[in-house]
Automatic annotation (TrEMBL):
Protein name per UniProt: V-set domain-containing T-cell activation inhibitor 1-like
Organism in which the protein naturally occurs: Danio rerio (Zebrafish)
Organism lineage: Eukaryota, Metazoa, Chordata, Craniata, Vertebrata
Superkingdom to which the source organism belongs: Eukaryota
GO biological process terms on file: regulation of leukocyte cell-cell adhesion; regulation of T cell activation
Alphabetized InterPro entries for the sequence: Ig-like_dom, Ig-like_dom_sf, Ig-like_fold, Ig_sub, Ig_V-set, T-cell_Activation_Regulation
Length: 171
């Protein structure tokens, strides 16, 4: 059965949200529902990027049949989380060609969620103190929309605590 034939039936739509990722890094685009399927075997969902097949889950199993070659060995999900209604997509080794619209379709629940991925070059910061090594960047941002039951989590760089300027507080 061809999954894209179901698209006109979707009635739970959301506004498109933007995510920023960096060349060579990974990005996690979270698409979840509070109403998980009755059984993992009933799950049918797919991820699309500008109408290209990124990733499919058919009857609870990953299906790479028809997957666009651009995403082979770079796109993954979290199978242990399917039973919780979590169908997050992780894209590894981001490339300029990854920018654009990503859509998560949860077929049996008629949920469609769109995201705009913006891919930027990493900025190299010059250190004024040559005697210390730069610390790795920590990341985490999470948004929730309880009205739709769809959650979005993505990662963006944040400064390490020792580089924060006065006026910012640590908690």
């Amino acid at each position: 059965m061809y999954k894209d034939q179901f698209l006109p039936l979707f009635h739970k739509l959301s506004l498109q949200e933007s995510i920023v990722g960096f060349i060579g890094d990974s990005s996690v685009i979270e698409c979840s529902t509070r109403q998980p399927e009755l059984t993992v075997q009933d799950i049918i969902m797919c991820w699309r990027h500008n109408n290209l097949n990124v990733y499919d889950i058919i009857n609870g199993q990953v299906s790479v049949e028809g997957q666009n070659q651009e995403y082979k060995n770079r796109a993954e999900t979290f199978p242990d989380e399917y039973k919780n209604g979590n169908f997050s997509l992780k894209l590894n080794n981001l490339q300029h060609s990854d920018k654009g619209r990503y859509t998560c379709y949860i077929i049996r629940q008629s949920i469609l969620k769109s995201f705009n991925l913006i891919v930027k070059e990493k900025q190299v910061r010059e250190s004024t103190n040559q005697g210390t090594k730069p610390r790795p960047k920590r990341t985490a941002i999470m948004f929730a929309n309880s009205a739709t039951g769809v959650y979005l989590k993505f990662h963006v760089p944040v400064p390490s605590p020792n580089k924060m300027r006065s006026g910012y507080s640590r908690t």
